[in-house]
Structure formats: C-alpha cells, structure tokens
C-alpha cells in the first residue's frame, strides 16, 4: 500500500508542478483553478463531500470533508496551498515546471513550498475516505489558493466569509518536519509561531528634468537608491523569544544563539542556511525587493516606487514597525510616502492534544525522534485560522535526503526538489495523525 500511495503522491505532485500556478501578487495571476480541478478530479469518487470556493475568477480553492460521528469531537484540517512563487529559469539546472523524476527526486517549483504536502495530504485523505474511515471527529482537507500573496483570495477570504465550513480545532500546514541530527537523537522542528508581515510601498518623489542636464537635479531614482542602501544596512536590535530559546535548547545548539550580546557575531560564521534562520528568528527584518520608476532614458525621474518585505517579531505592532522603517530611512523620510500592510505575528501553544498526537505518531515513523517548537520567519495561512481560534502548526515529515541546509535555501530559491521517501513519510504521517486525533 505504501508504494501505491507514494506513486499516487508522486504523480499528483508532478501534475501540480506542471500546472504552474504562479502567483505574482496580481489579482489575475495564480490561476489555481487548474490545480483545484486536478485535485477535485483526483478526489471524486472517494466518498467525501467536496465544495469549491472562487471569490475571483480562476482563484479557486477546494474543501473536502469526512464528517465525524461525534459533534463534540475535534475537527482536524490538513491544509495545502496550490500556488507557487515566480521563478527565474536561468538559475535552475532543470526545467522548473518539468517535474522531472530522477533518482527518486522530483524537481520543480513548489516541490518543497508546498506542493509536496498538498499532494500527500490529498492522497492520505482520499485513501482514508475510500477505506471507509469513520472517525469520531471531522477530517477536512483544504487545497487553498493565493497563499503566496497574503491569502487575499484564499484563506483570508475563506475565514472571513466561509468560517462555518472552514472551522477546525486543529490545522496543519507548512512547514517543518525536516530531520535534524543531534547528539541525543533526531529532532523534528514544528512551526508554532510565525513572524508578522509589514509589507510596505515607499514612494520617492523628485523633480522631472532633461537628463542631458543632470547637474544638481532632484533625481528620485538616486534618492531611492540611497534609501535602498540604508534599509539593506539597517540593523534592528536582537530579541530572543521563548520559542527560539526552546528551539536552540531542543537541538543542543550553542548558547551564543540565545545571547543577545553574542548572537550577531556568532551567526556570521554559521552555514548560510542556519545563519539566515538564526538571524531572522531574532531580528525584525527589512528586505527591499522591487523597484519601479522612470519613464524614458532622457528624463530625470520624478517618482520611484520601492517595495520592502518587512517581517516583525511577536509583540511588534504596526506603530513599532513603521518607526523602525522611518529610522532606517533617516533624514530622507520627508521625501517619501509609505503605505503598509500590517499583519501581526501569531502563535499556538504546545501543551495541546495535537502536539501530543504529533509526538506519538512521529516517534513511530521516525524512531528516536522528538519534536521541537520553532518560528516560521515567513508566513503561512495558519495565521488566519489561529486568529479564528484554531491551534495551528506547520509540519510535514521529510527524509534525511532533504538536509536542513538545502531545505532552507529551496524556499523561493533555485532547484526546488523533494524525494519520494519524503512523500511516503508525509503520507504515512497524515494517515496516522488522522487516526490518532479523530478516531
């Protein structure tokens, strides 16, 4: 059975990758309807109830349900998104949408983020439904659109407008579950906390002039370049949170990683993957990512728009984030206008039945392992469900072929890939978790 389910998950993952549901943040992008219809076709006939939600043309999500027999029992949701981020094919060694299978490894955009889990969740759900699974609690599977652009037409919309259908006590989505070897055994990180987002657009103003007479002109592009430099070099203060402390202690990492006076110097010499995680989990971060400006080669630009991806730590609201951004810009702040999206941090406790269930099933699937809580430096759709009252964790189960260093770099990076052993482990995880939580 395991081989059959792994083959199903492999084929479904390959089709999801090839659908190329690329979300560039515009309303018309994504076209997740292609993968929503693919998943619907896969689930049809399994005996589950299936519903569709499409708040914008082409931005379709799929919800499947196995109704529990006891209304007082908990509801578990397995949630995967179907959209992926844009790709620069020049940096890849394989076709990013070819979904090649080579030496047990599937290559393609979304292989790790997070079509591997979306496919294995679907396969596990369908197998349970076909086998006559009759749980006390209800099992939901949600294949959701628009995760990669703040969830406006996906989870955000569904929680705000369709919460009765979506309500769940427990929600599992990305990311975590990569195996970290330690002196005391394998440790499996579980994402229990997410940083907030404060995505900002900075409009820089100047004065248009003829570019052939550039002396002492008020060039918005030159000002914008200086603002980008300042933001890139800005260093907010270190903050050591409880979840990060538990992660460091759980993995037996050096104590310098929880020392505010030493961490910045220490992470400079770490491998790049761990260094980035350590820095992001202990700092508010600002990354200039997009610039638009200018109209013609011979015209001094009078306007440039910059986009900055800012991620805030727990306890930092929009006022704090804006003050940090203005501090980074410094004396050029009066030259700009700033508009921002304030989406604060969320977290879930670990003293829950869901944590206990994950501990039990992962100990069986990955002998000698133990869970450790950690921080998601990006964002997932779990934040909407946490705010609606759910306990939400980010988890999967990956084989030792997916090293942490590679795992961290593949998110939104080149050469995303996942192996079939990981697909098998994740599929078995969802089967065991559904039985443990709901049966």
Structural account:
The protein folds into two domains: 2-182 and 346-438, Aminopeptidase (3-Layer(aba) Sandwich); 196-341, Alpha-Beta Plaits (2-Layer Sandwich), CATH 3.30.70. By secondary structure, the chain is α+β, with helices and mostly antiparallel strands. The strands form five sheets. A six-stranded mixed beta sheet has the order 1-2-6-3-7-18. Strands 8, 9, 16 and 17 form a four-stranded mixed beta sheet that branches. Helix 1 (2-19) packs across helix 3 and helix 9 (272-282) packs across helix 13 (404-410). The longest helix has 19 residues, at 420-438. The chain contains 14 helices and 19 strands. The protein is globular, with a radius of gyration of 23 Å.
Structure characteristics:
439 residues, Aminopeptidase, 14 helices, alpha+beta, Alpha-Beta Plaits, six-stranded mixed sheet, four-stranded mixed sheet, 35% helix, 19 strands, single chain
How is the topology of this model organized?
Blueprint: H1 2-19, H2 33-43, E1 49-53, E2 61-66, E3 76-81, E4 101-102, E5 105-107, H3 115-130, E6 139-144, H4 155-161, H5 163-166, E7 170-173, E8 180-182, E9 185-194, E10 196-205, E11 209-210, H6 220-233, H7 242-251, H8 263-267, H9 272-282, E12 285-293, E13 299-300, E14 303-312, H10 318-329, E15 336-343, E16 346-347, H11 353-365, E17 370-376, H12 382-387, E18 391-394, H13 404-410, E19 417-419, H14 420-438
Parallel strand pairs: 3-6, 3-7, 7-18, 9-17
Antiparallel strand pairs: 1-2, 2-6, 4-5, 5-19, 8-9, 9-16, 10-14, 10-15, 11-13, 12-14
């Amino acid at each position: 059975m395991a081989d059959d389910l792994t083959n199903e998950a492999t084929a479904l993952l390959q089709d999801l990758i090839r659908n190329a549901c690329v979300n560039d943040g515009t309303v018309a992008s994504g076209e997740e309807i292609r993968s929503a219809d693919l998943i619907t076709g896969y689930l049809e006939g399994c005996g589950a109830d299936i519903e569709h939600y499409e708040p914008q043309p082409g931005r379709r999500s799929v919800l499947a349900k196995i109704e529990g027999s006891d209304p007082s029992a908990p509801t578990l949701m397995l949630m995967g998104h179907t959209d992926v981020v844009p790709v620069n094919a020049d940096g890849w060694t394989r076709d990013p949408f070819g979904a090649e299978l080579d030496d047990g490894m599937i290559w393609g955009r979304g292989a790790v983020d997070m079509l591997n889990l979306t496919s294995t969740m679907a396969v596990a759900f369908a197998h349970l439904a076909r086998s006559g699974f009759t749980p006390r609690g209800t099992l939901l599977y949600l294949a959701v659109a628009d995760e990669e652009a703040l969830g406006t037409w996906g989870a955000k919309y569904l929680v705000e407008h369709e919460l009765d259908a979506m309500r769940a006590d427990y929600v599992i989505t990305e990311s975590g579950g990569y195996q970290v070897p330690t002196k005391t055994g394998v440790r499996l990180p579980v994402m229990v906390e997410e940083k907030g987002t404060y995505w900002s657009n900075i409009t820089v103003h100047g004065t248009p002039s003829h570019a052939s007479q550039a002396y002492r002109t008020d060039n918005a592009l030159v000002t914008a370049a200086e603002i980008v430099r300042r933001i890139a070099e800005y260093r907010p203060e270190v903050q050591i949170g409880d979840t990060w402390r538990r992660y460091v202690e759980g993995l037996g990492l050096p104590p310098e990683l929880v020392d505010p006076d030493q961490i910045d110097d220490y992470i400079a010499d770490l491998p790049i993957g761990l260094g980035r995680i350590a820095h992001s989990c202990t700092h508010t971060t600002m990354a200039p990512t997009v610039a638009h400006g200018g109209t013609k080669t011979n015209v001094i630009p009078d306007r440039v728009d910059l986009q900055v991806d800012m991620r805030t730590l727990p306890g930092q609201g929009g006022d704090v984030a804006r003050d940090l951004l203005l501090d980074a810009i410094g004396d050029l702040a009066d030259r700009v206008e700033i508009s921002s999206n304030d989406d604060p941090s969320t977290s879930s406790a670990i003293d829950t039945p869901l944590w206990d269930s994950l501990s039990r099933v992962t100990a069986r699937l990955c002998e000698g392992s133990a869970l450790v809580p950690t921080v998601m430096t990006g964002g997932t759709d779990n934040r909407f469900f946490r705010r609606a009252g759910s306990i939400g964790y980010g988890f999967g189960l990956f084989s030792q072929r997916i090293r942490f260093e590679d795992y961290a770099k593949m998110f939104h990076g080149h050469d995303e890939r996942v192996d079939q052993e990981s697909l098998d482990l994740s599929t078995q995880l969802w089967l065991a978790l559904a039985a443990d939580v709901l049966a």
